[in-house]
């Protein structure tokens, strides 16, 4: 009841001020800089809400045209500029990129893990979807035969790679590294289909294990090749690796320990061996049942689903910065009292240990308004001091 009353008071005050919550913007951003640098050491809760390009449509009252947004840079940047004109006034920052890309400083695209596994991206419903490349066990075995004999270096580097690398290195531009991946459960269910894969793990663990080992081998090889192209060895390469694995929620703990856990463990042994190295997982789904296993992997950053509480996460992941746990639909519907109440709930659970970066437990979606971001800022400034 106390949280609800405090939320009601702040929202009422915002309405009396014409809909803009009361915030000392200059002081907030100064405190935010310190909080963002170390959410465990700061005196104020860090904020992780920076909005996203998805939010331009509702804020600017523009019809959604995602294909043009994705493919027409001038169109995208003029939307960003118009959005930033509003964000500067409402939250005191220009939030979206307005700078055009420079093709002359961009490396040619390398092929991905999905390309090695012959999975194609398909545009549908204003988004890209990774489609299955095998539909039954015989097709999966044949696919794995091809994957296991693939020369990864030769396959992932384009023909003009060496010439472009020489040119770009002279400009001081290093090749991009491989430090982020669709997580193993989500990747496997994309390549083989969700139901197919879950039954595979239960009915044919030998083939599922072969699939797991192939994913891990290719990931390690892609990482090694791209590190070498950038001039690094395993000993000198930058640390840290992150995963986005929503579909891990579909796995029982035993299934996850068999399939997903070994991949994360090995990747982090290679790229995040030290206690303070970045080990991050985004899974905006109901995957609290996997927290005991993830606790064994010593995550340093999380972004889990809105049904997973700060208290639950902290119990198993004492060193992790918790990015959450505001429900994305609460934010996109601009449910003002609920936004503040969810902040107060999460702050109360994080107060003893700190390490909270308050943001959505998942994506920031179209419909989320800058006034709601400002309301979060006001809640943090008024009620989020340790």
Describe the fold and architecture.
The model has no long low-confidence stretch (mean pLDDT 96). The protein is an alpha/beta fold and 386 residues long. Helix 13 links the parallel strand 5 (241-244) and strand 6. The chain has helices at 2-16, 25-37, 56-60, 66-71, 73-91, 113-116, 137-148, 152-156, 161-170, 184-192, 194-203, 205-229, 253-271, 291-295, 310-316, 328-332, 336-350, 370-383; strands at residues 46-47, 121-124, 127-130, 180-182, 241-244, 279-283, 301-304, 321-326, 356-360. The strands form two sheets. A seven-stranded parallel sheet has the order 1-9-8-7-6-5-4. Strands 2-3 form a two-stranded antiparallel sheet. It is globular and about 65 Å long. Helix content is 51%, strand content 10%. The protein has 18 helices and nine strands.
């Amino acid at each position: 009841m106390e949280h609800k009353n405090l939320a009601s008071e702040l929202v009422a005050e915002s309405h009396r001020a014409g809909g803009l919550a009361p915030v000392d913007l200059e002081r907030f951003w100064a405190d935010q800089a310190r909080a963002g640098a170390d959410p465990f050491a700061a005196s104020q809760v860090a904020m992780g809400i920076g909005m996203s390009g998805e939010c331009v449509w509702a804020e600017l009252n523009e019809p959604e045209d995602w294909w043009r947004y994705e493919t027409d840079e001038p169109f995208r940047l003029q939307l960003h500029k118009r959005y930033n004109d509003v964000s500067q006034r409402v939250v005191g920052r220009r939030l979206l990129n307005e700078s055009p890309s420079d093709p002359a400083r961009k490396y040619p695209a390398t092929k991905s893990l999905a390309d090695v596994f012959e999975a194609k991206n398909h545009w549908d419903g204003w988004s890209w979807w990774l489609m299955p490349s095998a539909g039954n066990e015989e097709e999966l075995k044949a696919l794995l035969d091809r994957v296991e004999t693939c020369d990864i270096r030769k396959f992932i580097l384009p023909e003009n790679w060496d010439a472009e690398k020489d040119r770009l290195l002279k400009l001081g531009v290093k090749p991009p590294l491989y430090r982020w991946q669709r997580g193993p459960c989500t990747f496997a269910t994309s390549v083989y289909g969700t139901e197919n894969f879950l039954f595979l793990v239960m009915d044919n663990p030998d083939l599922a294990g072969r699939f797991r080992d192939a994913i891990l081998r290719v990931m390690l090889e892609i990482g090694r090749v791209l590190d070498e192209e950038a001039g690094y060895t395993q000993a000198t390469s930058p640390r840290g690796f992150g995963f986005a694995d929503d579909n891990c929620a579909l796995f029982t703990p035993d299934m996850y320990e068999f399939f997903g856990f070994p991949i994360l463990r090995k990747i982090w042994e290679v790229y995040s061996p030290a206690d303070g190295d970045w080990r991050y997982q985004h899974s905006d789904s109901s995957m609290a049942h996997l927290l005991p296993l993830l606790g064994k992997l010593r995550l340093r950053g999380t972004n889990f689903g809105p049904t997973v509480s700060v208290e639950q996460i902290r119990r198993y992941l004492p060193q992790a910065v918790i990015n959450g746990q505001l429900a994305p639909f609460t934010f996109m519907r601009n449910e003002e009292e609920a936004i503040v109440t969810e902040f107060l709930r999460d702050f109360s659970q994080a107060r003893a240990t700190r390490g909270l970066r308050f943001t959505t437990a998942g994506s920031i979606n179209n419909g989320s308004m800058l006034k709601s971001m400002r309301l979060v800022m006001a809640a943090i400034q008024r009620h989020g001091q340790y």
